[in-house]
Amino acid sequence: MPESHIIPWADASWTHDPADITVDGDHLLVTAVEGSDAWRHTAYGFVHDTEHALLAPLAVGEAMDVSFRAPWNGQFDQAGVFVRRDGEHWIKAGVEFADDHLGLGAVVTDRRSDWSVGYVDDWLGSEITVRVSRWQDAMIVRARADDGDWRLVRVAPFDGEAAASAGPFLAGPTRAGLVVRFTRWTMSAADAELH
Questions:
Q1: Where do transmembrane segments lie in this chain (predicted)?
Q2: Pairing between β-strand 47-49 and β-strand 128-134 as defined by DSSP bridges
């Protein structure tokens, strides 16, 4: 992966304030508000726009990595990277605990949301890193557990002419008390190749 530099937690702003934020050395511990989530229309018929995302600008040719840990024991607990163009165009990518499984996937929203997910139960207890690389016409999502191999999660269309921001996110749709420990947030050059 290309050389990276750390993004300070204070150099960004939240889409929606979490219930609590604590700085622990270099780490950021964030508690989700019960009922927080991000989704638009598809299959469920509702719009949720209450996620907690800490966002900084992301330009074409740049990538962001977010590393984190969480207990993963509440239905739909989720964390990862959020990329936002506006309220109807965004991507959330990372892990979500649902039906007693940890799923790795992405929700890509262009007025309506879609969802792709696959089980990664062997990642429970690991430090997870999600990486988004912005190309001229796409967002490339990769992830890994601890120091394992990078896994391609999604190649999604994304308007290269639009301003966008990205960064760590979490949501607790069904419960209070989800605490995610974000351990690292970095920026680097975007991945040059898919394979």
A1: none
A2: unpaired
